[in-house]
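Justification of computing resources. Each target in the renewal requires a structure prediction run like the one illustrated here; the chain below, 180 residues long, is used simply to show the kind of job we budget for.
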Amino acid sequence: MKREIVVEGKPYRVEVVECSVGKSFSVKLNDESVDVALEKEPASNKPFIIRIRGKPYLVELSKIVRQAPFSIKVNDVPLNVELKSTVMKMVSPVSPTAMLVQKPSKKTFVEGVVAAPMAGKIISVRVKKGDSIKVGDVLCTLEAMKMENEITAPRAGTVKEILVSEGANVNSGDSLFIIE
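Resulting structure tokens:
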């Protein structure tokens, strides 16, 4: 999952390749690899420890809002954070029908397809086929690691296909919606 995150007004490019609880994993921060470890799965509204380059940090999350800045605390220091959406561009042409039959590989991005940024469970779908949407409109809510993540529209358009339903489990990179 690639995303731009703004912390206290400073932008960072973050890429999480694979996140494993209890194991060390690599995160790219502004194209620099950083070793990260989660000691246990974060529980909603409870502080958790994340180790970055072996150093522990106590993290407290408030409700994460994808369209607006929100606050977190790291070692009791409050920080303002804003998540920026990433827009997927076409690498190779794939028809919407083919997308329904096979999942795109994690390296294939198709314009108009909104993919799951991480594995989780769809807990609500907020749009219907044919709805007109704007950039940033909430399409669905994905629960991952006990946190609710709002999946937003990366571009304006019309919802052509809804490829998931409430209660569905999805993997990172799975196609969720097609927007035209």
